[in-house]
Please model this.
Amino acid sequence: MTTIFDSHESKVRSYCRAFPAVFKNAVGAELFDESGRRYIDFFAGAGTLNYGHNNPLIKRRILDYIQQDGIIHGLDLHTTAKRAFLETFENIILRPRHLNYKIQFPGPTGTNAVEAAMKLARKVTGRNGIVAFTNGYHGMTAGALAATGNTYHRQVSGSLLNGVTFAPYDGYFGPDVDTIQYLRKLIEDDSSGLDKPAAVLLETVQGEGGVNVASFKWLQQIESLCREHDILLIVDDIQAGCGRTGTFFSFKPAGITPDIVTLSKSIGAYGLPMSLVLMKPELDCWEPGEHNGTFRGNNLAFVAATEAIRIYWTDNTLSLAIQHKAHLLRRRLRKLCDEFPAHGLTVRGRGLFVGMAFEQFPQLARQVSAEAFQRGVILETCGARDQVIKFLPPLIIEETMLDEGLEVISDSLRTVMQQANNNPAGGLPDSIAQEVHP
Ligand SMILES: *Cc1c(COP(=O)(O)O)cnc(C)c1O
Model:
């Protein structure tokens, strides 16, 4: 029964259109709707539930904390929960990785962290411009949206969006064009029309933009370019961070050290809203309250995050498990692609951040997602044309459930392909594919 949602909830709702069940319970990688029907979750709240739904180990701590009347809302007051989080983040995440960052708690959403990061970069450098990349996604508030490529999202805000110049992401023109050379020329040529920017803002793997992966070499070259010209490097690790690509920070294996990092989505560990801006200490030029807010530092999220970090990041067990499962996933998907050689399907990604792209038949991706949902798997699409299906299971998913989900998805793809072959125009009409998104 979805009547109340249809009649009373704003039309702005989106994911529920693609997955029109009424969900009630969830544990680990499984969701259950009101009728008790089970779904395997290959979307995990767009990467917010890396440790699974209602992770029992984290839940225990949250329940204890509530039982003891621990502080839930505290503006940005000092609390024991915040202290424990800061100490744990420093001792288990930052120091062993030789990262020296100060930590800012902006409002609890990802877009707020990006706003703060852009604002800080502008304040520190006294420059206005930010360079962002084609197909990038950084959030929906005006500053972050200005750095987001997608027209569907941009058009609503029209004239508000300024101060950002877009450069081509790695591979934007195919494998043979060096997009660094283009950006370097723009920055170094006094007559290019590009004023020296405050910062370059990027995702190491573009989530919403289609699971586009930047090579380590490209990331290193961007870092060098920034260093040479005294431009700040901001990595938006909101979706790719917190273990999604196999390491806590997605940029670490590339050997780069951003000046500013944004984290959100899974940092709250239990699906609780929280976001962070990490900045090199010398950049911390904020005046008190300059980026203020009521919900800065969600104490329940501190409790959950502290516990998750202690459980999952004190050694490399989780990291190795991610890499192992990623290997299984990609092998399966590549095999599946091979079943349809004429369709030019490709698999890309890093760690458990994987996409299967239907560049030549974009509408099929939505159809596979819809078919998988019918069969009990939540699988989202992404990319400018929704042409990519995105595999983002909780990192803690058991191998057997990963297998089970993949079996369902494989059957869904086969069914969709069969339908498409019977109807050479491309299967279901485009209007259906468009209706469900975004
Ligand atoms: C989701 C996301 C955001 C925005 O986070 P919200 O919490 O939705 O505001 C920003 N950047 C990236 C890379 C994201 O994936």
Notes: The chain has two domains: 3-55+316-436, 58-312.
